[in-house]
Design brief:
By secondary structure, this protein is an all-alpha fold. The chain has 9 helices and 2 strands, in the order ααααααββααα. It starts with a helix and ends with a helix. Bound molecules: zinc ion.
């Protein structure tokens, strides 16, 4: 399997490429790019969260524990004296970072259900719902957030599968077929549970109609044209230069 840095750089490259195409076809504006590139890259690290002690899962639980601490602080800051409040905060951090992390590791096996196309769909819909209901994004951008998570996720699965082909010996490694799969066939209970959660999320998600409408009006034939905003930048620079040239000759 590909290592953390390979996944990080390939997911980043794929996200930048996709965001540039999306800007070119008028699906998004250049202002949307940095956030969507971040989400695509994050999506590219997500499938390995079921690998015990992998960097993505440690990072994820560290972020989760910080979010837990922030929530505890918000809920209890007016009800407790500083000392008990400190105990609550430390307790929350330790519980999420270590107890919950250990529990998650015991429940999941690497390249199980989290390393599948079903999980890509699950996380895409989860991101769409979080963006729409909690982060107050409009429907179009909530769906785009979900799509970029899925994009990075699928790139990760493909990359792992590519790594299982031993090119020098032109044979398949034992891991072939475990990275890019529809769901976990070895643990059908987990797969069924994730399928149910995915259906619930789809049911909760806002209608994808605004995305479909924008998708239909995109100019797909211009996807290979020069990157529009770079071209604009160049035009702007030229304008500034010619303007400066004009002002230079003025007395
Ligand atoms: Zn992987």
């Amino acid at each position: 399997m590909a290592n953390f840095n390979t996944h990080l750089s390939i997911a980043l490259a794929a996200s930048v490429g996709s965001a540039l195409v999306a800007v070119n076809v008028h699906l998004i504006t250049s202002a949307d790019m940095p956030w969507l590139i971040f989400l695509g890259t994050f999506g590219g690290l997500l499938p390995d969260i079921d690998a015990s002690n992998s960097r993505p899962v440690k990072l994820l639980f560290f972020v989760l524990s910080l979010m837990g601490v922030a929530t505890a602080l918000h809920l209890f800051k007016n009800n407790y004296a500083p000392y008990p409040l400190l105990m609550i905060i430390v307790g929350t951090y330790l519980f999420i970072r270590y107890a919950l992390f250990a529990f998650f590791n015991r429940l999941t096996v690497h390249r199980g259900v989290f390393h599948s196309l079903l999980a890509a769909l699950f996380f895409a819909l989860l991101m769409t719902c979080i963006s729409y209901y909690f982060l107050d994004w409009d429907i179009l951008h909530a769906w785009l957030n979900g799509i970029f998570i899925a994009l990075g996720f699928i790139v990760h699965l493909l990359l792992d599968e590519l790594y299982s082909v031993d090119l020098s010996n032109s044979r398949m490694k034992k891991s072939f077929g475990t990275a890019f799969k529809l769901c976990s066939y070895r643990n059908m209970t987990a797969s069924a549970l994730m399928a149910v959660c995915t259906i619930i999320l789809y049911w909760m998600a806002p209608t994808p109609l605004p995305l479909v409408n924008v998708w239909k009006s995109t100019q797909w034939n211009s996807y290979l044209t020069n990157v529009r905003f770079l071209r604009q930048l160049k035009t702007n620079n030229n304008m500034v230069n010619s303007h400066q040239g004009l002002t230079d000759v003025e007395p």
